[in-house]
Amino acid sequence: MSNQHTLSAVKYSVLDLATIKAGLTPADSFHESLRQAQQAEKLGYTRYWFAEHHNMPNVASSATSLLIGYVADNTSTIRVGSGGIMLPNHAPLVVAEQFGTLASLYPGRIDLGLGRAPGSDQLTSRAIRGLNINAAHNFYQDIRQLQTLFSPENEKSALRAFPGEGLNIPIWVLGSSTDSAHLAAAMGLPYAFASHFAPQAFKQAIQIYREEFQPSAQLDKPYVLACVNVVAADSTPEAAKLLTSLQQLFLGIVTGKREPLQPPVDTMAGVWDDAQQYMTNEMLRYTFAGDKETISRRLEQFVAETGVNEIMATSHIFDEEAKLKSYRLFAEVFGDKE
Fold first, then answer.
1. Could you give the CA distance from residue 261 to residue 42 in angstroms, rounded to a whole number?
2. pLDDT given for residue 337 in this prediction
3. Which segments constitute the Luciferase-like domain (predicted)?
4. Which of 47, 264, 268, 277 supports an S-S bond with 13, CB 3.0-4.6 Å?
């Protein structure tokens, strides 16, 4: 069985953080995101998601629903959504109204991925949540409330979402640990795992999800989306150099010294020490970097081992043209879609 034949059954999508590059502004990031989304639509990508993060000098996707609207308004067919909305940061009614508005404007194209993490540090989390600092413990109940607000049966309730009520907005559970796997399975919702930065629990989590899955009105069988890092180029040495921007970005997570995305360097030697290299590479375990043939071969193995239904690529590449090219090469790996 060829790589292309194997991968042709797998959907491919994009996760975007509207990454801020050194020397550029959030506005530059937003415009680049739109160009990426427009290209992704032409290349057959299924969905284009934005992740919610706060108080990070290298991430501009804090007002996630606004970016979803910006991209949806300037594309035609690609699904646009959140990967995800950090639900404990928001009242379910407000989320229902925001995504009800988006789904009313762009029917059949909006996804609502929900996460439990703060998407920030604890200081920022307290600033966002105030007295609701323990809201993560209500994640299950908040998702249920969202489902109720979206349902047509809620029309007799005293609390209703306008717009939102009666709209078929797919809800996804996002996760980076096994806790989310139990919840997604119990609720019968599609499961998107953050294997691009939390690889340790990935295989165990998707096994739990599949074993415990209970069919629901939204989904009759398990559906797993895995997010991975992708750096594709014409040659593996070229990809290895482009990859150093991502390595520097994650080194900032390891050291706590976050800064805008940096240009690539010829070598990471001298940039990190052995311990930092180990910790960074552990986080980046599911990174696919190289030429198209290398990525195709590794992706086929990944799909054979995990059985995922969809792969979502996130690419932190400094040069915009190189990034657009990486997404073009990645799409070619999956072959032509029917």
1. 27
2. 43
3. 12-309
4. 47
